[in-house]
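Worked example

This section walks through a single chain of length 291. The input is the sequence exactly as stored; nothing has been trimmed or padded.
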Amino acid sequence: MELRNLHSFLMTAREGNVTRAAALLHISQPALSRQIMQLEKELGVELFVRGKYKVSLTEDGRRLKKRAEEIEEIVGKTEREFSKRSEVLSGVLSIGCGETWNMEELSQMMAEFQGVYPEVEFDIYTAVADDVKERMESGILDLGLMFEQVDLEEFGFLRMKRRERWCALMRRDSDLSGKERINVQDLLKRKLILPKRAVVKNEVENWFGEHLDEIQVAGYRALSYFNGSMMVKSGLGIGICHEFPLYDPELVLRPLDPEISDRCVLAWRKGRELSAAAEAFLRFVKTEVSY
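Given that input, the structure is written out below as tokens.
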């Protein structure tokens, strides 16, 4: 399978039109059609439903698009790393991160590391842990900053220092905002906005215990503290989330009681050779955090 044909397939998939894709690739339309047909012959599937003016992806085409984008990203990452080779440490270090206050500590270490190795660039990808793990397994990401609930059997990791408490996020005009801590009874019969990711949602639901059937779910949120804050601010419900820097004076965070908290890890795939920049950064981080 040629990378050229994959690139042509991706351009066509993105444009939805063979003529426009050929123009952007600076090749003739027949040449582009031959490349796509060659790819279809190699794979033994049809990748496009061909219409008079546009093309759309088949189910096999959508599967290939996802893989082709990953391959394109890995190739680009490799090219950037080797194009920056020199006598000093250089390269692009790709890190996947969930939304976590531990990013503050990691960012400080990134800045200190770059002060020593200015030729190293950081490429940060924000996503839920499942997506970050998948990208580490495929080689797109070097490292991942994730909450410790993930399955780490195939990963090496360092635990970050900060424990992150679960809190109730509410409007300042809520009758609960004057309390220092929020207990289960406070939240019964209230509309709540819960985390969406299953393993995290289960942790929160376990906190409610035998009272779980008495809560009212107004919605779910995955990532984006900003979007979650807007949902709470609008009056949709009280958000249950990890503690985070809150700058909106109309909202307040109150820790849950009994307290639940999580640790974060900086993880990497076992058995996969890391780039020189990633290896150096891990050595640097190990002097700052605990196992």
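What to look for: The domain at 165-261 is CATH 3.40.190.10 (D-Maltodextrin-Binding Protein; domain 2).
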